Every structure is written in C-alpha cells, then in structure tokens.
C-alpha cells in the first residue's frame, strides 16, 4: 500500500514538474509598467507556483538595447519557473504560440498631437497585433490590453483576430477597481480585502463610473453594505467617484510619471483571476465584450462590467439593480466609447 502510494506520489510529482511551459507575451516590455510587472509574472504570482513560463518581450526597434538590460535582470533573478526569455521587435516571433498576451505598449500622446491622430496611430498598432494573434497565437490565447485607449485598442485587436473568440479579449480596469476598493477601505478603517464587489463601469477614463451600491464591507466580522459602513452618502456620490476617476492624473502630477507599480499589480490580479477564478460570491471589474444584452449597454463595445470567473471563463454578473443615478453614469461612459469606436472603425477600414 505504502509503495503504491509513494509510486503514485512520484507519478503525480513527475507529471506536475513536467508541466509544459506556457508562453506569455508582454508588449511595451522596455517600459515602466513592464519593469514592475515582469518579475511578478516570472516568479509565479500570476499563473501559479508550479507553472513554468517562457516570457516573450516585445518592444519597438529603438528599445531593443533597453530590452537587453531587462533580459539580463530577469536572468539575474535566478527564477526557477522562468525557462526562457525572448526579446524581440518582430510580431511573428512575439505572437507565436501564445497562451497569454499582455499588450501594454501603445502610442503615447505627444505634445500637440490631436486626439484623432493618436487614435489613428493606436488603431494601426492594434490592428497589426490583432492580425498577429490571428496568425501566430494559439486559439485559446487570453489577451489583456493595457495600453491606452485600452477599451478601444482591445476592440480593434479582437476585430483583427476573427478566429479567436471575443471572450478571450479583455482590457484592464482592475486598477480602477483596486483604487475604488482601497478608497472605501481607508474610509472605513479596514484592510482592502474587507471590501468586496465594487464595480467599475465603462471606459478606463475619467468618465468611468466607480459604483459601490452593491459593495460590502466586513466591519469587525460583520458584512454590511458599503453605504451603511461609510455613512456618508455625499462623499460616496461625490468626492469618492472623482477621486477614483482622476487618480491616474493625480499620480502623474505627484510622481511626474504615470502609475506603474499599481498598474502592474492590477495586471497580475486580472490575469490571476482569469486563470484561477474569482471567489464565490465575489465579482471583479474587467473590460469585456458587450454583446448587447447586459445592463442595457450597446453591443460591440469593450466595456467594463462586474464579472465572475470559473474554469478560465468570465461571465458578466447579471441582475444587479441599477438606480437612476447609476444609469445616467453608465450611459455617459458608454456613449463616449461608442463615439470612439466609430472613429476607430473608420480608420480600421481605411
Ligand atoms: N488600463 C490601465 O489601467 C492603465 C494604467 C496605467 C497605464 N496604462 C497605459 O499603459 C501603457 C504603458 O504605460 P507605461 O507607463 O509602461 O509606458 P512607457 O512609455 O514607460 O512604456 C511603453 C512601452 O511601449 C513600447 N511600445 C510603443 N509602441 C509599441 C508597439 N507598437 N509594440 C510594442 N511596444 C511598443 C514603448 O517603446 C515603451 O517601451 C500606456 O498606454 C498607459 O497609458 C493603462
Ligand atoms: C476612453 O478612455 C481612454 C483611456 O483613458 C482614453 O484615452 C480615451 O480618450 C477615452 N475615450 C474617450 C472617447 O474619451
Ligand atoms: C468546469 O470544468 C470542469 C471540467 O472541465 C467541469 O466538470 C465543470 O462542470 C465546469 N464548471 C463550470 C462552472 O462550468
Ligand atoms: C472566456 C475565455 O477565457 N475563453 C475561451 C477562449 O477560447 C477557448 C476556445 O478557443 C475557450 O475554451 C475559452 O473558454
């Protein structure tokens, strides 16, 4: 019996230690978010402590020397799960056989650049990268778009990769979600994980709607509604919302650089939940494809919804009541996305 058990143990161990490495792409890999992100991924915080990883790092040609430095540092971390690091500026190398793609790189706004021109440049980037996903990645690849405008870039990538399910594309609003969670927690004097089920609706911009009507706070072991825990409706309907909406700008003003550590942490949270699922009774915010039958949001947008995740698949958490205050804010951010989508699609077809 003992021998049988130990034999089984050895078989199981051998099987798990021989798990095939997964291929994970990070674009914008020479940038500041990636610098905070790559270590967490490579040490197993995202895809699990038993999952070997091949990291593919894509950036533009002038950044290749910088990328070499990042590769050296990853090697110098001596991480057991990290099997290979592949720096490249070529999409055919970068997108090959991917299990996960984290698209961080995009065209930044430059001095005097018009909004439309910026959008046009990003449509071109995400059209190319979507087409590369279509051509080179696994059909089961999970794609997370971070580079702004994240929602619309994600839509363009998805449309450029028609054979990969729309459900496999998402954009990052988890940073906004984490900001909302933390603001409520600080206000109530509880740890961040004592607050659950905040929601970010819509675009990752200042029109996003951080909603705590369905959030719960664990106060001394008892779950109470956020509105009852905070006991300050005017803060929740006013400064709380604008603080979360404008947090990115506040960080830039203070740091003279945009959020990187917190963005990297949010990327890890998003991907880890996608891989391993959300807790029962909890939902997280994720920009996902709106099919036209959730909360009255127009179809064919990437819009941030509350989702729960099981078996590596997300579902929009349906059935929450939406009051007039929320409705107006959800519709305003949707209208912004519709307009941006229509402009982006006109560039896509050019
Ligand atoms: N969704 C969110 O919550 C969120 C939060 C923070 C930042 N962002 C966005 O993330 C992006 C990256 O931020 P950062 O601080 O790391 O910027 P960064 O400028 O430090 O790095 C961006 C990197 O992307 C690279 N890049 C540009 N075009 C590329 C392309 N076509 N292919 C591959 N790489 C390319 C650049 O060369 C650069 O190395 C920005 O668009 C930023 O607005 C999103
Ligand atoms: C949507 O949000 C992104 C990211 O902040 C922003 O770049 C974009 O301008 C917003 N869209 C519109 C139409 O305002
Ligand atoms: C998840 O997948 C497993 C096996 O693939 C299946 O048995 C289970 O029913 C699935 N659960 C859900 C919620 O889809
Ligand atoms: C939602 C999600 O992550 N999923 C799907 C990606 O595509 C494969 C099939 O190609 C599905 O099995 C996943 O569930």
From TrEMBL:
GO terms for molecular function: L-malate dehydrogenase (NAD+) activity. The gene is MDH1. Gene3D superfamilies: Lactate dehydrogenase/glycoside hydrolase, family 4, C-terminal, NAD(P)-binding Rossmann-like Domain. Pfam families: Ldh_1_C, Ldh_1_N. It comes from Salmo trutta (Brown trout). This is Malate dehydrogenase. The lineage of its organism: Eukaryota, Metazoa, Chordata, Craniata, Vertebrata. Its EC number is 1.1.1.37. Substrate binds at residues 109, 115, 148, 179. Catalyzes the reduction of aromatic alpha-keto acids in the presence of NADH. Plays essential roles in the malate-aspartate shuttle and the tricarboxylic acid cycle, important in mitochondrial NADH supply for oxidative phosphorylation. Catalyzes the reduction of 2-oxoglutarate to 2-hydroxyglutarate, leading to elevated reactive oxygen species (ROS).
């Amino acid at each position: 019996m003992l021998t049988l058990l130990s034999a089984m143990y050895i078989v199981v161990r051998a099987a798990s230690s021989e798990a095939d490495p997964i291929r994970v792409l990070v674009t914008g890999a020479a940038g500041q978010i990636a610098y905070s992100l790559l270590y967490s991924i490579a040490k197993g915080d995202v895809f699990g402590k038993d999952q070997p990883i091949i990291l593919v790092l894509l950036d533009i040609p002038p950044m290749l020397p910088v990328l070499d430095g990042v590769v050296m540092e990853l090697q110098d971390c001596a991480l057991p799960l990290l099997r290979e690091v592949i720096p490249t500026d070529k999409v055919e190398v970068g997108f090959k056989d991917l299990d996960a793609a984290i698209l961080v790189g995009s065209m930044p706004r430059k001095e005097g650049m018009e909004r439309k021109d910026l959008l046009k440049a990003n449509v071109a980037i995400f059209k190319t990268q979507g087409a590369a996903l279509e051509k080179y990645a696994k059909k089961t690849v999970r794609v997370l778009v971070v580079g702004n405008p994240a929602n619309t870039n994600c839509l363009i990538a998805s449309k450029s990769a028609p054979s990969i399910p729309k459900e496999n594309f998402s954009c990052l609003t988890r940073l906004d979600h984490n900001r909302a969670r933390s603001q409520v927690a600080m206000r109530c004097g509880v740890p961040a994980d004592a607050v659950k089920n905040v929601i970010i609706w819509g675009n990752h911009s200042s029109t996003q709607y951080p909603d705590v009507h369905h959030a719960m706070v664990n106060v001394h072991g008892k779950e109470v509604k956020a509105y009852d825990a905070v006991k300050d409706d005017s803060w929740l309907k006013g400064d709380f919302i604008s603080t979360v909406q404008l947090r990115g700008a506040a960080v830039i003003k203070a740091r003279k650089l945009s959020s990187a550590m917190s963005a990297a942490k949010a990327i890890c949270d998003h991907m880890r939940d996608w891989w391993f699922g959300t807790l029962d009774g909890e939902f997280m915010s994720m920009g996902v494809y709106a099919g036209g039958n959730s909360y009255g949001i127009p179809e064919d947008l990437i819009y941030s919804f509350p989702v729960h995740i099981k078996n590596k698949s997300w579902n929009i958490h349906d059935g929450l009541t939406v009051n007039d205050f929320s409705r107006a804010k959800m519709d305003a951010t949707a209208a912004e996305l519709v307009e941006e989508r229509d402009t982006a699609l006109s560039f896509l077809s050019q």
